[in-house]
Amino acid sequence: MPLDKPYKDIPGTTIFDAEQSRKGYHLNQFCMSLMKADNRARFKADERAYLDQWPMTEEQKQAVLARDLNRCIANGGNIYFLAKIGATDGKSFQQMAGSMTGMSEEEYRDMMIAGGRSIEGNRHLGEKK
Amino acid sequence: MARISAGVYTSHVPAIGAALDLGKSHEPYWQPLFRGYDSSKEWFARNTPDVIFLVYNDHANAFSLEMIPTFAIGCAAEFMPADEGWGPRPVPRVVGHPELAAHIAHSVIQDDFDLTIVNKMDVDHGLTVPLSLMCGQPPVDKFAWPCAVIPFAVNVVQYPVPSGRRCHNLGKAIRKAIESYDEPLNVQVWGTGGMSHQLQGPRAGLINSVFDQNFLDRLIADPAGLANMPHIDYVREAGSEGIELVMWLIARGAMSEKGLKVVRRFYHVPASNTAVGHLILENPS
């Protein structure tokens, strides 16, 4: 019997389940390596060379180089792991989260101060806004 | 015998720790949030327990994808603040309570909850931010948290996470364990994380205050009913990271079902990407 995954129809959301975790294992473990100051320095000195030490797919490496977090997530990344890249770049969690929404940093910050993104129209794929 | 006197519930946003550590807590953005915890800090100073049993989640710091324990109890004598990529928070090391932790592990595992015993682990903002909010920043000349802390880490990062019902029942087993400990310790059980927030994808920034307020109401008055809420409701209604709220049910399960005194209730939007919720509940004496 196939597993029930009711969360597949939530718009703009990828649930980090065992399937995603398997796909993203090396990408996420690369991110974990950035918790050490030495590794952060080596990564910054030559990103491509550092990435090439990990058995990641080319698509995963390109997504990291482009700092495209949505693409990282599509390729199995999880935000708490990807946050280590943002930390290495000196970015806050708000800057990272905002970068995935298509909004400018200021627009995203203003939306949060105004109470955040509304749930209305954001529950199901294809829902009328 | 040991006794659970109170439960504390709070969000554990990393930016709150950064605001405190960088001296930004008086900025207009942060003022309403920190003011909301003023009376809680006073309450805590008057009601400092011997031990806090602190339910939180690790955010890919102590645990990577190499090992993903669903429930992990910290049995060590001390735990260091983790370097989450920005450098470790400048807060004191966390002193554990190995004897009580081992007793709880023994009792709860025999009650059919398969805890992972952890004897070496760094603790991240999930644990240290709630301590900062409730205890304030420890003074330089007495650089220590005011009591012992048993870290209890729950996997809410890789799906599937434990159900609300299992968390609530686990809380009951933890209560039984604590109340069967011989020493007359005063113990608080804290539940942290949440409230509504989503940190990923085009839906990032989601906040659902109607859901959050309803969750607070039911946590106080109807925890057993609330525990039946399925995962999908958390994720859909409160955002992908709103699922952290299941941890509040562990802390609530460790309290009396009825007769609680609501000492503090506070709700504020936003702290960075997140809705902040906070409760203090006292057990009937």
Describe the structure.
The complex is a heterodimer of chains A (129) and B (285). With 129 residues, chain A is mostly helical. Helices cover 53% and strands 0% of the residues of chain A. In chain A, helix 2 packs parallel to helix 7 (79-88). The radius of gyration of chain A is 16 Å and the shape is flat. Chain A starts with 17 loop residues before the first helix and ends in a 16-residue tail after the last helix. Chain B has 285 residues and is α/β, with parallel strands linked by helices. Chain B has a single domain (3-282), classed as LigB-like (Protocatechuate 4,5-dioxygenase, Chain B, 3-Layer(aba) Sandwich), CATH 3.40.830.10. Chain B has helices spanning 14-21, 31-35, 38-46, 98-110, 125-135, 164-179, 209-221, 223-226, 231-238, 246-253, and strands spanning 3-10, 51-56, 71-74, 78-79, 94-95, 116-118, 148-154, 186-192, 261-271, 274-282. Classes of the chains: A mainly alpha (129), B alpha/beta (285). The interface between A and B is large, with 55 and 48 residues.
What is the topology?
The complex is a heterodimer of chains A (129) and B (285).
Chain A: H1 18-23, H2 25-33, H3 37-45, H4 47-51, H5 58-65, H6 69-74, H7 79-88, H8 93-99, H9 105-113
Helix pairs in contact in A: 2-7
Chain B: E1 3-10, H1 14-21, H2 31-35, H3 38-46, E2 51-56, E3 71-74, E4 78-79, E5 94-95, H4 98-110, E6 116-118, H5 125-135, E7 148-154, H6 164-179, E8 186-192, H7 209-221, H8 223-226, H9 231-238, H10 246-253, E9 261-271, E10 274-282
Parallel strand pairs in B: 1-8, 2-7, 2-8, 3-6
Antiparallel strand pairs in B: 1-10, 3-7, 4-5, 9-10
